């Protein structure tokens, strides 16, 4: 897993981001190994890596989270803990897994002078093509470019 974290940090540097907030089940599993349904990882280009979850996942986090991540069990307000754990600077997030409501709640909690920026890619895209299985999904149906009309 640590090599995945190293790839994410390389991409952070390329995207000129100081940190990345990682949420969403697929992203968390890829980066940290966590298979639970409630958690957030924060990694910085400066080698900080923190995983946050609530008390229900204490044992699971201890068993599954990559050793490169510090683990914090949050007592009440996850958003405040995310804000406290996020270093100053440009902070990326995955717009596919971060709600607008979550961003509005998180932004005012920032006291360390960081700003949120959409990440250039989600953490899933940091995996090489060799580590990601190919999709067996069918292609999406094509929409017709002409409007259909019914005649009488």
Summarize the structure.
This protein has 152 residues and is an alpha/beta fold. Helix content is 28%, strand content 20%. It has a six-stranded mixed beta sheet with strand order 4-3-2-1-5-6, sandwiched between helices.
Question: Main traits of this protein?
Answer:
alpha/beta; 6-stranded mixed beta sheet; 152 residues; Creatine Amidinohydrolase, Chain A, domain 1
Q: How would you describe what is shown here?
A:
Helix 3 (58-64) links the parallel strand 3 (49-54) and strand 4. Helices cover 28% and strands 20% of the residues. By secondary structure, it is of the alpha/beta class. It has a six-stranded mixed beta sheet, with helices on both faces. The protein is globular and about 35 Å long. The protein has a single domain (2-125), classed as Creatine Amidinohydrolase, Chain A, domain 1.
CATH 4th-level superfamily: Creatinase/prolidase N-terminal domain
The CA-CA distance between the termini, in Å, is 64 Å
Assigned CATH class: Alpha Beta
- Corresponding CATH architecture: 3-Layer(aba) Sandwich
Strand adjacency order, main sheet: 4-3-2-1-5-6
Number of helices: 5
Tell me the number of structural domains. Answer: 1
H/E series:
HEHEEHEHEHE
Alpha-beta classification: alpha/beta
- Could you give a short account of the major beta sheet? 6 strands, mixed
Radius of gyration over all CA atoms, rounded: 18 Å
Count of DSSP strands: 6
Global outline: globular
* CATH-defined fold name: Creatine Amidinohydrolase, Chain A, domain 1
In terms of DSSP E residues, the strand content is 15-25%
Mean pLDDT: 75
Helix share, percent: 25-40%
Low-pLDDT sequence parts: 120-152
């Amino acid at each position: 897993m640590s090599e995945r974290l190293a790839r994410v940090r390389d991409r952070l540097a390329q995207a000129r981001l100081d940190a990345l907030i990682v949420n969403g089940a697929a992203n968390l599993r890829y980066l940290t190994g966590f298979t639970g349904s409630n958690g957030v990882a924060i990694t910085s280009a400066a080698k900080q890596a923190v995983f946050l979850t609530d008390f229900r996942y204490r044992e699971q986090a201890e068993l599954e989270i990559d050793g490169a991540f510090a683990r914090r069990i949050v007592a009440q307000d996850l958003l405040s803990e995310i804000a406290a754990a996020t270093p100053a600077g440009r902070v990326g997030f995955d717009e596919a897994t971060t709600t607008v409501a979550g961003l509005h709640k998180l932004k005012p909690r920032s006291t360390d002078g960081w700003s949120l920026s959409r990440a250039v890619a989600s953490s899933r895209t940091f995996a090489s093509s060799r580590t990601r299985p190919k999709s067996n999904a069918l292609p999406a149906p094509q929409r017709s470019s002409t409007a259909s009309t019914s005649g009488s």
